[in-house]
Predict the structure.
Amino acid sequence: MDFELNEQQNMLKTMARDFLSVECNKVKVRDLEKNEINYDPEMWSKMAELGWLGLIFPEQYGGTGADLLDLVILMEEMGRNITPGPFFSTVALCAIPLMRLGNKRQKENYLTSIAEGKSIWSLAVTEQRSGYETSHMNCSADYDGKYFVINGEKMFVPYARVADYFLVVCNTDKDTARNSGLAVFIVKAKSRGVKVEKFSTFAGDGQCRVRFRNVRVSRQDVLGRINGGRKVVDLIMQWGAVLKCAEICGACQAVLDMTNNYAKERIQFDKPIGSLMVIQHQLVDMFTDVEGLQYLVYHAAWLLSQGVKADVQVSMAKAKANQVYQKACIDSVKIHGAIGFTMDHDLGCYVRRIKSAEFMLGDTSLHLEKIAAGLGL
């Protein structure tokens, strides 16, 4: 287990950092928060040209054949720059399960289109009374002999306003044991009976409510097996959570760097505030937390890339990521003298995304429960 980046990974890291610093500075980030679609289609096309959208796809589907650790590096840089857009929803939440669990026809039909930047995807799983555990899911898909008919409502579907397709998690057999009657359907966003309503959120991250009313899909649009959707959800929860942690890790590193630089430059009583012990201790704690988080993320990603069961390690990384992001931002705001909370300060861009990042793919409480279960408690 060697986490030292190789030459190609260092090149990817440098290229991503240089590209995002030019194409998506903080002024643009703030503008996109207020934009109706919350992303830049031109930048999306450029990402496709760079091969990012198909980074871990096999070459036959327009990808470059990279592995999960390469995608972790890219997500870190996106988190460092808090890049707005449907990259995470398309690649981490939808393309990966399509690549790993889709049949040949589904891969041929959809992966190349994603790699070329021609289609945007989003995951529709959470409901008002049902989160990622899917234990009380009301959105259903009933078979009428020819089609599955989907009815229900999904909450917090990222970038649904601009999505071309959804992966929709539905209850398909209410008589089966808990969680076993699930299926995941590929649904065209423009299908008859689909209605999208955008939320106004503090993070400006394109969250939406999606209603499905008598939406018909065929058996060919089932990802995996009927009543086998739990396997798809578990895959998304693991791979997606690790990539969200990588994004958070990059954001935390940016907050640390920003705060460290400020502590060296801000003069108070004729000396930098970084010379004060209380500031030094806060920065040391922040540095230790960020370094520890990065190890947990890379360890979990390496295990998944090796095909090793990593439920506990993924939950450790996500629980820690949620905690470190919040603490790092709060301590940074304190050191900046509260100006970091404002809309115009770059630090505020990170602060506004704390809760959005925490609840995506499971909050701290959910993952602590998973860790406890892994310990046999």
